[in-house]
# Entry
Amino acid sequence: MDWLPLLSTLAGAAIGIVATLVADRNRWKREDDKEALRLRLDIYTQYTSTVKVLGETLRALAGRDHPSDDARAFALREAFRESGIATASERMWLIAPEPVVKASNNVFHCLRRICDGYADGTALGSTEDRARWEARGKAAADMRKLMREDLRVGPLTERHTSTLDADTPTA
# Structure
């Protein structure tokens, strides 16, 4: 009996099976990577949008007349709680890589300081207010840079909000 044709057939079948398995695994890995990237994009978009809307809300509330200082503080803190930033932040903590989590947490705390400052009576547009907004702007720019790196889309040449004056409400 000649074993060579049988061994050749078996070797060819084994190579075919292994090649198919490797190709399927590589395809699965690429799809898994794409899905993870899409998920991070969704989470980053939700977080940055929540940050933007919360900032605008805090500014608007700080600029309004309130019946009392306590009413102002309550409105600001309630807006912070209801903004969805806590949920968006938790999603970041669960999914994002550590540098992005640290940067997003820095933005969260900047917004918390802005909210607490307004609740404690900081005037809109004061030196202290402008310093807090500048810190938030820098933290947000750093966060976006890390997000873009993670998403592999490359850096931007300009800031999202190019000047502090763009962040300061006009009368």
User: Anything to note?
Assistant: The helical segments are 4-63, 69-82, 85-95, 98-119, 127-151, 164-167. The chain has one domain: 37-167.
